[in-house]
Amino acid sequence: MPAALRICFLLNPTSGTNRRLDLPALLSQHLDANLVSYEVEETQYAGHAVELARAAAARGCRVVVAVGGDGTVNEVARGLLGTQAALGILPRGSGNGLARHLKVPMEIVAAIKHLNQPTFQRIDVGSINGREFFCTAGLGFDAHVSKCFAEAGTRGLATYAQVALREYRRFRPVPITVALADTTLETDCYVLAFANAAQYGNNAYIAPRADIQDGLLDLCLIDSMSVVRAVRVALSLALGDLPESGAAVFHTARQVQVEAARPLGFHVDGDYVGTSTHFSVELHPLALEVAV
Ligand SMILES: Nc1ncnc2c1ncn2[C@@H]1O[C@H](COP(=O)(O)OP(=O)(O)OP(=O)(O)O)[C@@H](O)[C@H]1O
What we know:
It is built from nine helices and 14 strands. The mean pLDDT is 95. Helix 2 (48-58) packs across helix 3 (70-80) and helix 6 (141-151) crosses helix 7 (157-168). It has helices at 23-30, 48-58, 70-80, 97-101, 108-114, 141-151, 157-168, 227-239, 242-245; strands at 5-11, 36-42, 63-68, 86-91, 120-128, 131-133, 136-140, 174-179, 184-189, 191-195, 217-222, 249-253, 255-268, 271-291. The chain folds into two domains: 5-118, Probable inorganic polyphosphate/atp-NAD kinase, domain 1 (Rossmann fold); 131-285, Tumour Suppressor Smad4 (Sandwich), CATH 2.60.200.40. The strands form two sheets. Strands 5, 6, 7, 8, 9, 10, 11, 12, 13 and 14 form a ten-stranded antiparallel beta sheet that branches. Strands 2-1-3-4 form a four-stranded parallel beta sheet, sandwiched between helices. The protein is α+β, with helices and mostly antiparallel strands.
């Protein structure tokens, strides 16, 4: 009989809106001991999952599963880059963008059962100013909202929508220069998103044509946001028809340089990082293995 698949589960106890989860009980109930051997660890602080994932890979775990949202997925995946271990996901965040893109079941029992015999494949990885992202990164309004959301105290889609609406009235675009391989754009930045996966999470499709294995980032640029355009963008995010809507301009690229006229906030996978006036964005083809 082949050796059981060795899996390490890394649980972020703070992720999502439903904090009660008896993970050990669910795993013993739904994982097949003939197929899988496993261990469970909890993160103690932000950033901890990077170290725990790297250590799990070093001691021979074949799959390291992020039990959390896109922030936890980002940390686990960063820890696994350059190792022999693959990333798994048990979605437990508020958005779960990468899990949704990779068609991981949103229901926890179904997602656990799926890990008895996962499919292994490789996906592209993006980086912005040296910080890796797996789903999306972005400049401008979406980064600003992720900063305000982190400060809001409560999580969930309702809080996110409230924060976005409030900040819409305050946020002003910043002039930027975007250098692509064959062209340079002089424009205003309300939002410039770099999409490896198609969605932000919650099935909000910022770049519905993004292919996570094509060696390219999909850029979505929105230069200004009138009320009419805001309504169009909100609808298109839900419908997945932003490219056809006329409300945004799309490009694909492997490498992008952005210069901003004044400091502009940026996020990776929905977590606010800080501000900069220079952004160096790259795509690293098939740099991460996933087990989904
Ligand atoms: N033990 C911990 N205590 C405090 N923060 C933690 C801990 N473990 C992880 N974190 C941080 O919590 C942040 C949020 O987690 P995560 O993104 O997984 O959940 P979420 O925000 O609810 O989901 P989503 O990103 O899908 O909206 C992560 O960026 C991570 O750094």
